[in-house]
Amino acid sequence: MNAVHRYEGTVNQVLGDGVMALFGAPLTHEDHALRACYAALAMQEAMRRYTESLDGQGALRIGIGLNSGEVVVRSITNDLNIDYAALGQTTHLAARMESLAGAGSILLTAETLREVEGFVEVRSLGAQALKGFSNAVQAFELLGATTAKNRLQAQASRGLSTFVGRQGEIDAFRRCTAEADSRSGRILALVGEAGMGKSRLFREYIENHLPSGWQIMQAFSVSYGKASPYFPVVDLLRRYFAVGPGEDARSVRTKVVARVLELDPTLGDTVPPLLALLDALPLSPANDLTETSLHDQPAILEAMV
């Protein structure tokens, strides 16, 4: 349920052995299918971490089914709250995909895949015969998310059209780059209506016109990021410190401390807030600090404690 709420979905039914969640209804989101995929992956990651915490004493695995399409949503009101019920073949097919999914797997239909293609990695399971459906249904297993954060990046994996024009903007970028290279700090803000090609322009300049030797870091604001404080900042830090998805806190601490000390040993007091943003602060600093070779850095030890 926490995973559903993180991506602004609605848990409309709590069943004996699971939940049913809606994305895109009753609150509409243009990326509802992608939010559902991210929520499903977050659920499986939470189950994986929980199983690891059991130290081999057991395991908890869930199967998840996803489908996209039109539904009829009705509200059921009482004196305390409002519940929503979704009706239609779309929900029935989602339930059938959940039944087909094995423990620890996520299955989705071709309808959902069309909405999220380029943003996720899948494995085709072929046509599946499902109870209540006369025709076989194409099923896919959701394996993970790609690095794409916007539609331009997703489309780039399939190839982009030839870039034409915008020479005036490219020249302005070059001037700012030259000024920054001469140690005159510059911030370039590009403003324009949606669909005018702002992201494509930046991509073109970075890939074909930016001088060699520059370090490029990118972070994106996403629609579902409102529920996560400092989401773009955290995204930027994860890229800078090369923190991978699902990486354990101990490994994150090692990377952050090593990189900060490499930049400047006097930056030790920045380590705790950085680790806090990355959700990697040690629960018991005295026990974990020696593993990251911090015993030779008194300033950081004091800051961490």
What does this 3D model show about the protein?
- This protein is α+β, with helices and mostly antiparallel strands.
- It has twelve helices and eight strands.
- It is globular and about 70 Å long.
Summarize, please.
The chain is 40% helix and 15% strand.
Topology record:
Layout (H helix, E strand, L loop, with lengths): L1 H5 L3 E5 L4 E4 L9 H22 L10 E3 L5 E6 L4 E6 L1 H12 L5 E4 H7 L3 E9 L8 E9 L5 H6 L10 H15 L16 H11 L22 H10 L8 H15 L7 H7 L7 H4 L9 H7 L1
Question: Which short descriptors sum up this protein?
Answer:
305 residues; alpha+beta; four-stranded mixed sheet; two-stranded antiparallel ribbon; 12 helices; 8 strands
Q: How many β-strand runs? A: 8
C-alpha geometry? globular
Q: Note the run of SSEs as H and E.
A: HEEHEEEHEHEEHHHHHHHH
For this entry, what is the oligomeric state of its chains?
single chain
Percent of residues in helices: 25-40%
**Mean of the pLDDT scores?**
79
End-to-end Cα distance, whole Å, is 34 Å
Low-confidence runs (pLDDT<50, min 5 residues)? 287-305
Main sheet attributes: strand count, strand direction, barrel closure: 4 strands, mixed
Radius of gyration (CA) equals: 23 Å
The DSSP helix count reads 12
What is the SS-derived class?
alpha+beta
